[in-house]
Amino acid sequence: MRTTFAGLGVMGYPMAGFLARAGHEVRVYNRTASKTESWTKQFAGSSATTPAAAAKNAEIVFCCVGNDDDVREVILGEQGVLNGIPSGALIVDHTTASAKIAREIHGAAADKGVGFLDAPVSGGQAGAENGQLTVMVGGNAEDFERAAPVIDSYAKAITHIGPVGSGQLAKMVNQICIAGIVQGLSEGLHFAERAGLDAAVVIESISKGAAQSWQMDNRWRTMVDGEFDFGFAVDWMRKDLGIALEEARRNGARLELTELVDRFYAEVQAMGGQRWDTSSLIARLS
User: Which pTM does this prediction carry?
Assistant: First the structure.
């Protein structure tokens, strides 16, 4: 397909690369021109200087940027995607953003005869680089069926959650669950240390039972060693939890643990851990 990818950050850069490797025609856009230059040297594809120019003649435009304001600028701005994309095309937004902006973009796109899917991803930088992302999709079934085979270039699981906004709501559930798991793992490892236990032996035992988690399997060792210079940044997690907490205030959900963990992440930021991996929650217990 003729595709466009807007946003070549740590996630978008490899995702766009997988599209090119899968044989799709790819045109890229990024606010920092050096990223587009680097990408076009590494992969078969072209670049454009504005989102509108990048979207011209595209069948599907993918976006993966920072937050609601970035999505609004890249898609709805004066030089945004909707000012270049042809009628009948499709926008797939992989940004972790609010359900509100997803519905706003959907309405604006529909007015121009363009489809829209909100499709946030889970799996982090490693998942993007290995083409192993989990994608949660909101939108109509026809648009989903059209996009899924292309998204499959960089995903291990693609699920249609429901109407527009549902993908973002599902991603909020994902981040809520991760926050609680990481805090529990942090306290467990901290307790083991204070109790004089060998963490490796404890993890070998409990990871075979009900306490097992991805975080335990992949992060316990670096947590014990105090290594956090990698992975999904605390700043990003706080952004995501802020979105979830704001949505909870609208729908009445009680996110008591999430509010607490968000405050703990604020303490990690104050320690200088803005770019540390989310497993750095354990650092504040030392």
Answer: 0.96
